[in-house]
Design brief:
Distance between the termini: 64 Å
Largest sheet: 6 strands, parallel
Strand content: 5-15%
Number of strands: 20
Shape: elongated
């Protein structure tokens, strides 16, 4: 096999650079061979691409991976984690040879896919294909919004907040629908700071992509409104890694400021590994001893040695810190000049970097008077309008449902190129109202990217039932601990006539099953305000606000025995105490069903049953509280308990216990007004009273364990089951 060295004369690569690239290849082979599993092929063939990015393109500092002025790099092809890990090792970001040797093992800094907060230099968790590229769109959007907050008047390219977002994407990334959603939006947004390199190697796990992936991807991206280029290393009859051509394409991409850029890089997977080049077996399996030996011999490495790095090579690559120091010094001059000229904006930047909220910000939260029924989605909209002047970092929008989700801050411009303004929404490139289009999955990924960029707090809304479309992005946000806010409205059969396709039934339980996600379903307008307050005060993981379409009563806080809504931050609290102080039964409800518990309490108390009502907007936050507080809300000695929620009861069995009962909905809804649906499906105060008496009997031992949930596995609508 002819394994010519990369063509990199105009880039200025020395023999040490070329040797470093070959070192990347053998390290990738060694690491996967040692652990016995992984993805060596792409890391081998992308060695010159990754090396070019890390040593000649990216503005970054190995001594400070969180430097404000850095470019962002996203390895969307997260399965090829070694593509990034080996560059972090060579560049001196904190990884050493022993970390590469510990690839994919317990406690290592080099897990199977790059993990945010796990490995220095990794900006985002990737692996589920498409998520990285989609979130990179969010990174690019955040960079523009932050520039608008901090330095809107600087000439293009002259602000310390100007930088690029680079992505390496695979064939698999571009097959996932989430990238189509996000890429379409990126073109509309004209994100000139985003550069995607597509590793077009025609290989996926099942082999040649011809069996499933045949469209003209470059034309597709051109149709999205991207600036597109192609660099084909297979052209000319022999494989030649033309690094000069790739570098020129990247520079051309950077010069285009009104479009995101897409660069197709045609490669052969695992090149130049004997017997494994352009073979799908190199994608997700170790190469085998013979192939590794052949690769090392071909490249001039000792086949008897593993993880062998020439001292001159590592000394050369770690000089990256010295080069970065010089570039950072120039950036610092620009930053210092900006800070001196903009003291108020510098103070804002300091606050945002510290992830602190301004003093007294919560004073802006509205208080809602009792006596008027308000949908919690409407209350949320009023909260956002009130917070707009005091929290400039808060921004967001909806997946084409702004009027229904109430996610538009009144009077705030849209985040769009000014020429795309409409008579409904006027905006500019630094605006605040986000329009995701009907792209729920991309919205979830973009929100994560915005927050990971570091300075702003995003939110995004859709109907709760469509949270299904964004679950992959939500799960990754929870895994990373990214504190974004999802505004999921139309939370139950209470949305009414749209029917069972739009009525969530299993969704509360489904999203509660995601570790690290806080699901908050407020009971009234004041709980909604407190839910926003608690969400914004937290820095550890995403929060889902699950809100009603229909109006719900606003309770008289501090009067008639009703507690204040401050208890929302603790997940659950005593809304109404039993008349005797010590309850006979505890009714635990969320959202729009709290009113049913309140009504049932009146009936039960009149019958001489001491009844406590607990509002439990967030089971996750309640679980975080100490045992003393949890016991004060749900005394272990009170076994008679009833949960009340318009969804399946699976979340509640542990809480209500063996004597408890659940008033729930265990089947799909139907198309009718919400009052009819609640009545016909038994979500009434009378049903709560009956369940309370059953639970009391079970707690006394008069009745065995039971379940009022009426578990069903039926299909069809609730009024006409299949």
């Amino acid at each position: 096999m002819n394994a010519k060295a990369p063509l990199a004369s105009t880039v200025g690569w020395s023999d040490l650079d070329l040797r470093a690239v070959d070192t990347v290849r053998v390290l990738a082979a060694d690491a996967v061979e040692k652990v016995g599993n992984g993805h060596p092929g792409t890391a081998i063939s992308l060695a010159p691409v990754a090396y070019l990015l890390y040593h000649d393109v990216l503005r970054h500092d190995p001594t400070d991976p969180h430097w404000l002025g850095r470019d962002r790099f996203v390895l969307s092809a997260g399965h090829s984690s070694l593509t990034q890990y080996i560059q972090l090792y060579l560049g001196g970001f904190g990884l050493e040879l022993e970390d590469l040797a510990a690839l994919r093992t317990w406690g290592s800094k080099t897990p199977g896919h790059p993990e945010y907060r796990h490995t220095a230099g990794v900006e985002i968790t990737t692996g589920p294909l498409g998520q990285g590229l989609a979130s990179a769109v969010g990174l690019a959007m955040a960079a523009r919004r932050e520039r608008g907050l901090l330095d809107p008047d600087a000439a293009p390219g002259q602000s310390p907040f100007d930088h690029h977002v680079y992505v390496i994407a695979s064939d698999g990334d571009l097959q996932e629908g989430v990238t189509s959603e996000a890429s379409s939006l990126a073109g509309t947004q004209e994100l000139g700071n985003l550069v995607v390199l597509w590793d077009d190697n025609h290989i996926s796990i099942e082999g040649d992509t011809e069996i499933a992936f045949t469209e003209d991807v470059v034309a597709r991206y051109e149709a999205y409104g991207w600036h597109v280029q192609s660099v084909d290393w297979t052209a000319g009859g022999e494989y030649r890694e033309d690094v000069d051509a790739l570098h020129a394409a990247i520079e051309a991409a950077k010069a285009v400021t009104d479009k995101p850029s897409f660069i197709r890089v045609r490669t052969l997977i695992a090149w130049p590994t004997p017997g494994k080049t352009d073979d799908h077996s190199s994608h997700g399996s170790k190469l085998g001893g013979d192939a590794v030996r052949g690769l090392k011999e071909l490249l001039g490495f000792d086949p008897e040695k593993s993880f062998d790095v020439d001292a001159e090579v590592i000394a050369h690559t770690r000089a990256l810190a010295d080069r970065a120091k010089q570039e950072r010094a120039g950036w610092q001059e620009t930053f210092d000049a900006w800070a001196a000229a903009n003291p108020e904006r510098k103070a804002l930047l300091d606050r945002l970097r510290a992830d602190e909220l301004p003093e007294g910000w919560a004073d802006a939260l509205p208080t809602f008077p009792a006596g008027k029924a308000v949908a919690t989605r409407a209350a949320s909209g009023e909260v956002l309008a009130a917070l707009a002047p005091v929290l400039p970092e808060l921004w967001g929008g909806s997946a084409d449902l702004a009027g229904s989700n109430n996610t538009t801050m009144k009077g705030e411009p849209s985040f769009i190129p000014a020429k795309r303004s409409t008579h409904e929404f006027a905006g500019d490139q630094y605006g605040r109202t986000l329009h995701f289009g009907i792209r729920e999955h991309a919205m979830g990924a973009i929100l994560s990217g915005i927050r990971l960029h570091g300075l702003t707090r995003p939110y995004g809304g859709t109907f709760f039932t469509f949270s299904d479309y964004m679950r992959g992005s939500v799960r990754l946000a929870a895994l990373m601990g990214v504190n974004v806010t999802y505004v999921w409205t139309h939370d139950s059969i209470g949305l009414g006539e749209d029917g069972p396709t739009h009525q969530p039934v299993e969704h509360l339980t489904a999203v509660r099953a995601i570790p690290g996600l806080a699901v908050v379903r407020p009971a009234d307008a004041n709980e909604t305000a407190q839910a926003w307050k608690a969400s914004l005060e937290r820095t550890d993981g995403p929060v889902a606000l699950v809100l009603t379409r229909q109006n719900v009563p606003t309770f008289p806080r501090g009067e008639e025995g009703f507690a204040s809504a401050d208890g929302v931050a603790r997940g659950a609290y005593v809304l109404l105490e039993a008349s005797s102080g010590t309850p006979d039964v505890v009714l635990i409800a969320t959202g729009s069903e709290v009113q049913l518990a309140v009504e049932a309490r009146t009936t039960l108390e009149e019958a001489g049953v001491a009844t406590r009502v607990v509002s439990a907007p967030c089971l996750e936050w309640f679980a975080e509280q100490d045992e003393e507080y949890r016991e004060s809300v749900l005394p272990s000695g009170v076994r008679a308990r009833v949960s009340v929620e318009a969804g399946i009861a699976l979340s509640w069995h542990k809480i209500v216990g063996d004597a408890g009962r659940s008033v729930s909905l265990e089947h799909y809804g139907a198309s009718a007004d919400y009052q009819t649906l609640y009545r016909e499906f038994g979500l009434t105060s009378e049903a709560v009273v009956a369940a309370a008496h059953e639970s009391l009997a079970a707690a006394r031992g008069d009745q065995g364990p039971g379940d009022t949930a009426g578990a069903s596995n039926q299909s069809g609508t609730g009024d006409l089951p299949a």
